[in-house]
Amino acid sequence: MDFIHHLPVCLIAAGGAFFSYKTIEHISERKAETKHPEFVTITYDNLLEFTTQCLTNAGSTPENSRIVAQVLVEADLRGITSHGVNRLELYCDEVRRGVVSTTNTPSIINETSAMAMVDGQNCQGAVVGTYCMNLAMEKAKSSGIGWVVARHSNHYGIAGYYPMQAAKKGFFGMCFTNTSPCVYPTRAKKACIGTNPIAVAAPTHSEPVVLDMATPTVPHGKVEVHYRTGKKVPLGWGVDSNGDPTTDPAKIIFGGGLSPLGGSEETRGYKGYGLGLMVEMMCGIMGNSAFGKNIGQACNPNAIHRMEPVNLGQCFIAVDTSKFAPGYADRMQSIVDDLHDLPVAANAIGPVLVPGEKEHIRASHYRKEGIPIPYQVFKAIEKVGETFAVSTEGILENN
Which domain holds residue 46? Predict the structure, then answer.
């Protein structure tokens, strides 16, 4: 099997695991009894149309539905299953119950030529994110930089989507968001910060270089896979309810939490903790949104019926690199070429790649051959379709 399929079905969310263990156990039992394909392949266009229609029928406007659907399907296109259409049930449920606003629009609270403070008005996160990154790029055109911070936002999908939009237009892009608390700071026995991702994209003469990373050592999904298969996790992935490092995935999931990038204090985990806190400085604290332990578990299915707005803080930056010195893309392409030309270690599984390149390879392949949706995820979106009167039969055509 190709490496592009070596991805766990991790129904995770920034700040909380997006899966039900009862559901997982049921699937595991049923899998032994019922044979089914590992993946269901769907074309990009069909999956985008299905996702858009489900969101629209749930109560979102057609325009906003398309914005949200593009972010979700882009995740699946790049092989980031955790943030793709498996989140469709959650997003549609929030729209249906009015937890997120489908009538408001993001608004500018105050601004200068180079910055803006935006009130997301509790709109869908991808709607806020798209608005803010477009605003940052507009400001960068005239001022060289656009720095936009938003509050009253929601989960916006993969963080890398937004700086990628900037890089495709020649800007250097950055994006950050705070999330629900699930990471134990160094020396703590309680979670206080989220997975708080960092995303950066730089233009080249080919595809942008895209760094999109969360700040704990691993996402919840990797711990879940070990729990489901009865395997211990490496020391440094997470801690138990006392804040002590553990290799037992159950203790991490039930009452514990994730370790910051780097693991324990001895292995310099305080660096990942510092990066997560940096994101909080730039998002929740700078934007006066909810932050730290005060952020609700918006993406946890055990709290799927929440009614209170989550009020996430997010930061979007676009830079016109030509204002510093011409030829940025030339130099980026040069270092990419240098990295590609490095000799490969004897035990390496392939050539040297740059951040985001593996995802681009997947995306190119999936656009031609269709997107492989894990069977369990397909069955989940099939139920979403049934709920909102959108048939999956159409999306399986022309595959």
Answer: 3-334+350-396
